[in-house]
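Methods — Computational structure assignment.
A single polypeptide chain was analysed. Its primary sequence is given first, followed by the predicted tertiary structure written as structure tokens.
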Amino acid sequence: MKPLLSALVLITSACFTCASFAQPHENKRTSEITLQQALSLSLQQNPQLAGYKFRRAALSGEQMTAQLHPETRIHFEAENLAGSGEFSGIDAAELTLSFSSMIELGGQRDARTSVVTARQQQLESERRVAVLDLVAAVNYRFIALLAAQEQVRLEEEAQHLAQALADSLVKRVQAGSTPQAELMRARAALARTQIALDKARQQAQEEALFLSAFWADATPDFTRASGDLFALTNPEPVANWQTRLAQNPDLALLGDATRLRAAELRKAESESKLALGWNAGVRQFQQSDDTALVLGLNLPLAAGKRATGALQTARAEQDAAQFAEDSAKSQLEIRLNQTFIAHQQALNETLSLRDRILPLLQDASRATASAFEQGRYSSLELAMAQRELLETRAELINAALRAHETRIELERLTASAPAQELAE
């Protein structure tokens, strides 16, 4: 498991679109957590992943059973006893001790083993899908925590601006240059900022708990995620993602399902073939005190006809599995293209807000504040300029969040971590 953990942590950390994180000392408790630490804890301690070892052990037992040869039975028979006349008592009894078993002539044992092997491969693919889902979910929650932290910062800034405006209006009201109503509105707006700030802090706490739940920690010792929500990587061409779509773990799982159905069909076909029963033993004649060998063979009648229903079921299930695999491929291609378009849109929106719109609004807000201090603008105009700036910053948070989420979805669809590492 350790090679898998190290590979996943390294790759997802590299692909993750946050900035590089400072690594704290391993033995030092900290109020911040990095993505690498969250992934390591989740992959090591996630309860759902731990359950796969029990399913693996169960299939190992099934494989041992499938590899067994047909059982050998011992039989004891007593004839011609406790009857009437010369057969009364046991003096005329015939006692037979024999052994019996089956000779499988249709490759039944290999077919049984192949079914269990296919189920083991399917289980490993399920575990790999679970690992990739967990990695994606941890990335989602880590990003959500970063976004919640940015929202807290935004609400703190809103409260600071509202407080500064209210303090400024107090002086103006006292000087008689501003109506009392403007001060009351400013104080009401300040009270609302406290409500919004409390909600943002609560959301950040909830996101921290959601994150720690992946490693079953109800009382996490961190309060913040370490990273930069607005540090975005350059987008890859859609052709690169389409090329890697063949690595999609869900397709691999569907492929395993198809192979399992094929193995089950071979097993059904083998069971329709000849299996020869035999028995051999010794018979003792009490009356003459003689012994003789007993040999026997038995063949099932109409075995192929009796297996017709099972064969039809197995073929239909194999066809259904193949159809599901083929359908999933086309659906995944559509989903990949849709996700890529959404990622491009979110990335473009983030860059436009961050690099073009916000700087203009920041300059406009500073100019409005300066004009307000000079008495050329009212408090309402200043509040509107500040609100527009804060709302745009909130849009930037949401756009960056979508850009990260769609990038994570693209990585999940294309299984960014090496398949050989995930299978270990």
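Note: Residues 69-104+274-306 form one domain.
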